[in-house]
Amino acid sequence: MWNKIFLTLLIIGGINWGLIGIFQFDLVAFLFGGMGSVLSRIVYTLVAASAIWCISLLFRENELVRE
After folding, report:
1. Looking only at Cα atoms, what is the longest distance across the chain?
2. Are the C-beta atoms of residues 16 and 28 closer than 8 Å to each other?
3. Distance CA 21, CA 17 (A)
4. Cβ neighbours around 18 below 10 Å, total
5. How many Å apart are CA 4 and CA 66, to the nearest integer?
6. For each of the chain's 67 residues, which pLDDT tens digit applies?
7. Helices vs strands, H then E, count in the chain
8. Positive or negative, the Cα torsion across 12, 15, 17, 19?
């Protein structure tokens, strides 16, 4: 479950970076009141923590799929 949550946050962060790169539009800052607002900083921090967590996925053994 945690892996899916962190992966979802990474996808949100990736889409946001894509918007910044292509359109120079920061969706997170737009939604939460600017780049320096507390809520934006929380979202940025959660995305960064998710990226760090997902690094560990590269080094894990494949888990068995439960049916």
Report:
1. 45
2. yes
3. 6
4. 12
5. 16
6. 888 999 999 999 999 999 999 999 999 999 999 999 999 999 999 999 999 999 988 888 776 555 5
7. 3, 0
8. negative
CA dist., res. 34 & res. 23, Å (int): 16
For residues 50 and 32, what is the distance between their CA atoms, to the nearest angstrom? Answer: 19
pTM over 0.85: no
**C-alpha span between 63 and 65 (Å, rounded):** 6
Which amino acid would we find at residue 26?
A: D
What token pair was written down for 56?
A: 């560990």
Place of tokens 């439960």: 66
Handedness of CA 27, 28, 29, 30 (dihedral sign): positive
